[in-house]
Structure prediction request, 436 residues.
Amino acid sequence: MKIAMVGSGYVGLVSGACFADFGHDVVCIDKDASKIDRLKAGVMPIYEPGLAELVAANVKSGRLSFSTDLASAIGGAQAIFIAVGTPSRRGDGHADLSFVYAVADEVAAQLTGPAVVVTKSTVPVGTGDEVERIIRDSGTAVRFAVVSNPEFLREGAAISDFKRPDRIVIGAEDEWARGVMREVYRPLFLNRAPILFTSRRSSELIKYAANAFLATKITFINEIADLCEKVGGDVQDVSRGIGLDNRIGAKFLHAGPGYGGSCFPKDTLALLKTAEDYDSPLRIVESVVKVNDSRKRAMGRKVIEALGGQDAARGKKVALLGLTFKPNTDDMRDAPSIAIAQALADAGVNVAAYDPEGMELAAPLMPGVTMTTGAYAAIEEADAVVLVTEWDAFRALDLARVRELARAPVLVDLRNVYEPSDAAAAGLTYTSIGRA
Prediction:
């Protein structure tokens, strides 16, 4: 089957490469000519483990190609995926759908044969209806259908998530479109991946509801962590205790500095705006967003307290280990480290940082932060070492060396990577999340 993937960002590139690996003929399209040139040269625009190798193998096989020419790329394609960005619209939090609708306009003008147009981008409920209207109003005589097929890819594990999904959600309004989508995902039938066919609007809502619920779990356990610190509990024991209840599950019950990234922040906001538009407020999600935003700055205050308070912190040096919102990605969108670094800068603290993949994107977001060549380079002469993102490279630091290099023996572990007893044995004053 020939597939056209319009948008060669995170979702489009990963999805296109995986579809090609299934044996489909895939063209990834993007307006950014420099991005397409880099992709043709084997240079990835994002960091995702295994992606460069997957792209290279499928380009070599002839199943994957890249183009800026939408007209020629969609010719003969039976499935045309829209995988462009839907960022929060500046000023009001609504999802910016201008890129989606622009693609719909272009596709409508270039359709030459029957095709299913698939919204892979995360879009608010009702977007598929508008995409269908745009194409229909173009006057095209070509048979088409518009389908919703949200992605559920975790950054850092996107390829395995695509090839071994928990579920595939397809929102389609006619049987022909369902048949085309079954053929698209036929290679996954061997893995018995469950395919859930729904209405288009239900499919669009599933993605937002799932992300809002996961964001709620994160925010819930973070508030429980704060309570644990007050009452002398251990949030990791609490997480294990409630996570063993199979109605709840252990995933996303890890206390930390708050959620960030490309999905949860914008998707919770977009869901709230949809609820507002339909006069159906979501008070729990509203609270989740507010608590998460305040938590990031609170983590900065936690570090300042570990330095001895506001007055004592001024002029001291802090080492931040990990800047991306999670490990195994270079994504800095809404990363907690940004708010933490700003809170420290506002307190007059000097910040040095290291991240295995995110420093290039982090630098313009943190103009006063010194980017270093490694974890121990950042730690040297620091008055506090703060573990922000739990990269594997930070899970087995030589704590004795940390104590030797740092000016003061303060370790603030915002991911609970280390055991308090190990830190104490190394001579470190240890502060963690949700533990007395």
